Amino acid sequence: MSFSSPLRCVITAGPTREPIDPVRYISNPSTGKMGYAIAQAAVDAGWTVDLVSGPTHLREPEECILYPVVTGEEMYHQVDALFDACDILIMTAAIVDFRPKSPLAHKEKKGDAQLNIEMEPVIDVLKTVSQRKKDQFLVGFAAETNDLENYAMRKLKEKNLDLIAANLIGSGSGFALDSNILTILGPDGFREKWPAASKESLGRDLVALVTRKMEEGRT
Ligand code: CTP
Ligand code: CA
């Protein structure tokens, strides 16, 4: 395997938004904290970082290149453009899974007839780009309300990942909190349960783990 020096990493973060009409959208409570914390840790580790981010209130680490996006489709095009040249892709973004099929050109009045929105799936960014994976090291995230490890393992396989960081939504972990509880799974039976920690600390641990796993893969 051959990697760039310094390592080139693409990190996605934050929520996406899918428009219903010009003033309304579908989104989720992601704040981007986990992805931005990983971006900072990656910069500190000397990696070159491209941060593809949905709308957040966070400031990106100075040393990384920020690619702001809004919709899942935009996130897909940006990641697709950066993927071939990267060594590592870490997808923390909470991409909205379904979007209105035909967003309305004008603001829908609330007094008008009941709003029925036909929805269609948003492209799966990770699953799509990972089909042309070469040497890239791919890390996904999985947020689940139940059956955490089974669902996460399924995603790891479906999306051709090297690691997946899974967390249960609720009780001290998940969206919009400063800390998280992660279970890290790999395709080779690798499994580590990390205790509750700040997202900054988890970011550093994850960057260290990716570094270790890539070094192991090289030997
Ligand atoms: N992901 C992606 N493109 C999507 C949806 C998710 O690349 N359209 C990525 C996320 O960034 C994350 C991983 O896939 O790294 C798992 O996301 P998650 O929402 O947990 O899983 P889904 O495959 O969307 O399945 P579901 O939401 O039904 O559990
Ligand atoms: Ca999803």
From TrEMBL:
InterPro entries xrefs: CoaB-like_sf, DNA/pantothenate-metab_flavo_C
Single GO MF annotation: catalytic activity
Superkingdom per UniProt: Bacteria
Species for this entry: Puniceicoccus vermicola
Location of the DNA/pantothenate metabolism flavoprotein C-terminal domain: 8-211
Entry protein name: Phosphopantothenoylcysteine decarboxylase
GO process annotations (BP): coenzyme A biosynthetic process
